[in-house]
Amino acid sequence: MTDALMPTYARQDIAFSHGRGARLYASDGREFIDFAAGVAVNSLGHAHPKLLAALKEQADKLWHVSNLWRVPEAERLAGRLCASSFADVAFFANSGAEAVEAAIKTARKHFAARGQPQRWHIIAFKGAFHGRTLATIAAAGNDRHLEGFGEPCGGFTQVAPGDIAALAAAITDHTAAVMLEPVRGESGVQPFGDDFLRQVRTLCDERGLLLIFDEVQTGIGRTGRLFAYEHAGVAPDIMALAKGLGGGFPIGACLATADAAAGMTAGTHGSTFGGNPLAMAAAHAVLDVVADAAFLATVRDKGERLKARLEALRANTPNLIAEVRGRGLMLGLVCNRPVTEIIAAALEHGVLLVPSGDGRTARLLPPLTITDDEIGEGLTRLEQALAATSRG
Q1: What is the pTM of this model?
Q2: How far is CA 72 from the centre of its chain?
Q3: Range of the domain at 328
């Protein structure tokens, strides 16, 4: 009964019973090519044998024991993530918003521990999305998300994306960090240029600021690298992860250098369920597949082929599609018609897409394991959907 659910989502009238790979099956028998992956979550697709085996094996052992004791699975996962990234330490939570919250607190505590408690402000970018908690909606500064929740949490400033001069001008004696998404998914799958990321890194170094990357959506292979920051050849001081890390099982992670996290001592932060053995088992299984150079190369190859096919669709339907943008298997179709109309047509033809918050862009976020056959079939269905929309 949907009546018992708080109506915070405008849910479409469809329910899924099971899935295999990049295919989902509705309870009424319809089959769909999944270009949504639970909004970039199902990195290994549906019913991946490695993920199933890992969760079943762990479920027979322990589900939850509390962080009051050691959790060896969490220690090992932290080691793997740090060895594969810039980081020295990791904190585990249950979601992307919690991971971003941990990143914000880590940056603020860093300066308090250094005797500079006045440095707690964070500069973010207009059009960003960092989560739905009170702090993360304040960080993004989107009026639509802030409305009705009282005075926004303080300490956040937003500047225009891509404007390094505006960013530099916004820095004050109270600034602790700059926070950004390497690819802004909710604002329409808009990548920051690699040159701009390098400029931000240089500016943070020159002004003594920490750099936070929100890779909740871009991390764990989504852009064809294990982490999106690798494309630019720069690294943050703190990074938030979630979504694809658990392959569908709830998990969030905040990674940081030892220096950036120096203030995060016992009692400064916590999470009851964060780092529980089931989530750790899922994340280990995902990394076993994704953290492999050959696998990531296939993600890049599939992303390039998918983008090329989408460009052909755009050329054939310029009245519907204005632009194709994104990186790897994180792509967006900027629409000349209401995006809800395009997504509804795709659904009618058996393809699942995800809207962006800009109201113009349909996101394609398929499982990283999607096959060439599944890509081809999904694009054929999408082409049929666009043709039907054009006729309409």
Answers
A1: 0.97
A2: 26
A3: 2-48+293-391
